[in-house]
Amino acid sequence: MVLSLVDKYFFTIPIIYRALISLGVILIIALLAYKLKQLTISGAFAATIMGFTTLFLSGTSALMLYLFFFISAAFISKSSKRVRGVEKIHKKGATRDYKQVLANGLLPLISIVLYRITTNGVFLLTFSATLAEACADTWGGDIGILSKEPPVSILTFTRVERGLSGGISMLGCSSSLLACILYGIFYYSTFNSTLSGALLVAAAGFSGCLIDSILGASIQVHYIDEETGKLTEKEKDEKGNKRRAVRGIKYFDNDMVNFTSGVFSFLLSLSLGLFLHI
After folding, report:
1. At what angle do helices 195-218 and 170-190 cross, to 10 degrees?
2. Less crowded by CB within 10 Å, the N or C end of the chain?
3. Are strands 222-225 and 167-168 parallel, antiparallel or unpaired?
4. pLDDT digit string, tens, across residues 22-37
């Protein structure tokens, strides 16, 4: 209700002032994220572009859906990785660079732009669904590694190293589902949608999250750590020497997996949204 009133006023002011306000607000948020080491310089730049475009075109309501993902993901990622010490497996840490920001945020941005061009509400559906998938993937992975039970491969259901892409746990799956349900609620309340639309957002987001795990367990590139004999996503060791790829497709790293699973959620929500006239 409050955000709706803010947006109603926001879109009545002259366009130049709206642009300046949008840029100022987003720059403050991006600089704060950089100061807190949640974003690299390149990540802050990419986030500024996405945040400005979203706020300028669609107001605070849409921006809040973006911010919920980035803030919750940043907090959970940094906290959980410190607890379990999976930095030896993951290619990148909790500080996100531009590739990570784009992998998770580009499709929602495209959705917002398409909505403003076409005024077709289905793109608000894809906006929410792709953010739901990104949030679900992050929550599932970073909360899942806190599980007392060891994860299993989504393909073979055999035990895998904690933190390894493609591994799932009951705690991780539950966290992913919760994130998708929350985004369904956000979509329903923010855009005055129907219950069927909210359910579709949650379903498309969770489906994309499952695809992410399947891709991580099958075609995502993994390397062998010669010292420990374990799989890792890091292409080089601490001395800068290249590691040998032993699984997956070269260059198809975690960022590509995240983007591809987002594409799946985008296309699924778009096709079903058009078919069901949501």
Report:
1. 140
2. N
3. unpaired
4. 999 999 999 999 998 8
